[in-house]
Write a structure and sequence with these properties.
The protein is mainly α. It has two domains: 50 residues, no CATH class; 55 residues, no CATH class. The protein is built from six helices and two strands; from the N terminus they run αβαβαααα. It has a two-stranded parallel ribbon. β1, α2 and β2 form a beta-alpha-beta unit. The radius of gyration is 18 Å and the shape is extended. The two termini are 36 Å apart.
């Protein structure tokens, strides 16, 4: 899983983990074998903050009782995540005129 994540994404500069000793040992071993300098950021509650960001997604998906296919799950979750990013103002706009969230959504569809 870790190899696939690193292969599909860029190598991160730092990794945030909880106080787990096994995660720390695995990252240190990865640094030694691959000669990388991944910084380990250990914070007991930081991962909880990241997980809280997905609570609204979980609330919307749970009533669906799962998905019939991986493709349907990927498309539905991508739509939910893009709407949340627009609502939070995290979507970069290309124009100088500010757009409402609805205008940003319609611009994506065009």
């Amino acid at each position: 899983m870790r190899r696939k994540a690193i292969r599909n994404q860029e190598l991160p500069e730092r990794i945030t983990i909880d106080q787990s000793g096994s995660n720390t040992a695995a990252i240190k071993q990865y640094n030694r074998t691959h000669k990388t300098g991944l910084a380990i950021r250990q914070c007991k509650y930081f991962n909880n903050i990241v997980e809280q960001d997905h609570r609204a997604v979980k609330r919307k998906v749970r009533p669906m009782l799962g998905f019939k296919s991986f493709w349907a799950a990927r498309c539905t979750l991508a739509g939910i995540e893009i709407m949340r990013a627009i609502r939070k103002g995290q979507l970069a706009t290309t124009g100088t005129v500010s757009q409402t969230p609805a205008e940003q959504f319609y611009a994506l569809a065009a």
